[in-house]
Structure formats: C-alpha cells, structure tokens
Task: structure prediction
Amino acid sequence: MTAPLDIIKPAVRALRAYTLSPHRASVKINQNENPWDAPDEIKEEVVRRFAARAWSRYPDFVPVSLHEQLAQFANWKADGVIAGNGSNELIQAVLMVGIGPGKRVLISEPTFALYKQVATVLGGEVESMLLTPELTYDTAALLAVIEKKQPDVTIICSPNNPTGCVIETEDLRRLLRASRGLVVIDEAYHEFAQQSVAPLLAEHENLIVLRTFSKAMAFAALRVGYLLAAPELVREIRKAVLPYNLNAFSQLAAEVAIEKYPSLLGPIVRAIIDERERVYTAVSQIEGLSPVLSQANFMIVRANRDPKQVFAELLERDILVRDVSAYPMLHEYFRFSVGTPEENDRLLRALNEIQAE
Result:
C-alpha cells in the first residue's frame, strides 16, 4: 500500500524548508525590514479610504488603478505590470509558467533561498554558480553557462540578499543578449542602491523585474509586490496568479505609498543609506570583524570567531541578527539589517564588547 508521503516528489522531500528562527529581541535586525514604521500620515489616509469602501465586495479582479500608478512610478507600461501578494508570489508565478521537468534555472549563490526551493518543487533543474571570492557577481561564469546550457530562467537578485552586491548594467546587457530564456532581476532592495535595471525593459523582451513594498516602503506586514515585463509576457505570467490575489486594503495602501513616496518615504530611504555607511565604517574599525560593502539595507560581516557564537552573544544582549553561516561561501559570516540610529549604536557597542572579550 502506498503511504501518503510516497506521493510527495523525492526532490521536495529532500529540500530543506525555508524557515526563520523563533527568537525575539527588542532590537530586531534579522529580516532586512525597514526600521521605521510607515508614517502616520500614510496609515491614516489608507484607513480613511478603506473605511469608505464596502468590505463585503471583492477587491478588483485586476487592480487597474494600482497598475497605472505603478507604471507611472516605474516609467513602464500599465499592461506590463502585475501587482501581487508580495514579490514572493510573483517569483513563484514566473517559475510556474516557465519551469517544470527538463527545464533549467540558473542562479548565483549565496542568494535568496526561495528561488532554488520553488524551482525544485516544480521539478526544474537548478544550475548554481558561486559569486566571486569578493562576493560579487561572476558575470563571465554566468555568461559561459548561459551560452553553453541556455537556461530557461536566470534569476539575479540585485542588490543581492544576503551579500548586498549589484549586477552592473553593462554586464546585465551581455547576459540578456546571450540568453534565449527569461532573465529575472529581483530588485527588492533597489531603492537603497539608488539604481534600477527597469530602463532596460524597453530594449529586452526577455527581462522581468520584480519589486516589493516590504523594504523601502515599510509595508512588510501588508504583502505587496509587483512585476514589470513586456505586456506579452505579463499576459502569460498572470495565468499563474490566483484570482483576487491582492486584498483591497493592501491595494489602497500601495496607492497611497506611491503618492507619498517623494515627501514621506524617500527621506526615510536616504536616512537608511546614511546609517548604512556610518555603520559600515564603524564595524570596519572593530578588530576581528570585516563587513562587506553593501548597496542594500543590510550587510554581512566576516567574524574571526564562530558566527553562531556572535549570534548567541548578541541575543544575550537583546539584539537579534541573522546567522547566515549555512549559506554557500558564508560559513564565517553573520548578517544584520540597518536599524534606527539608536539600534545601530546598541549593535556597535555590543560588537565592540564581544570582540574585546
């Protein structure tokens, strides 16, 4: 008799689930979140608009008004936009329409673990290339794989989670020209790099750009993401997106965030960038720690002691960071996101204490 678990694909059973430790601390800098909450002015306007609509009615089947605002915000076409329940849903949708048995996904590691997990669940083959020893994208190696194996989907996180590196525009152009498959650029952290590959959409029909409201927009709790691509690609990808995937509250919130970005959210992004540079310089001066230059709202740090020990000692001081030592190439590293100035000062004091012991 077949056991229920025997129905589960062996490749899925062999996967390690994407998880997060249950630890809690007053300084929570382990998930690359925005340390400042969404401004009250945005919250109040969202609640006002939501209270005026009927809660008994479904959200828009296609959130046309949000798509139009996103298109204007990203300088792209409204029929080339999909809004989703976080960018994770849109990663899944792209892979669902393009990947299955016999199909290949190319990624660079270390990177966001979800790419490999979803591709594997769908039965695809994952081709993984390592970053350079400096933890930057190895464009020559990626190009060689693309030219030789022509993966169906290539995924590049830029800025990359967890290393913070970006792919240079000219390097991406080379990959796009060489690839007959889709090239997905996950720009979850692009605001902190102050650059985007979205202008290349007009030149390359195989380019897909993913973005999120969870980081710079301070909306991690609301789960809003969006995808930019050629309209003909969007029509196909949308088939893998569930009906009413974006609830009405999150849709309204995204619209307000776009309207208020220049005056309210943009300055917060600038403050995070300034703090990132301050913290990088300060950590660089702590003996035994070597931070990696990042263009995101987080950074990884190489330690001269076991990162698990650093994690534990910080947790004892009520500071929660991320142990990334299980990632390829990162067995000596831990990661933290940029907090408020007060949180960053607490982290720096704690790291100085730990390294002085």
Summary: The first helix runs from residue 10 to 13. The chain is about 40% helix and 15% strand. Residues 94 and 237 are 6 Å apart (CA to CA).
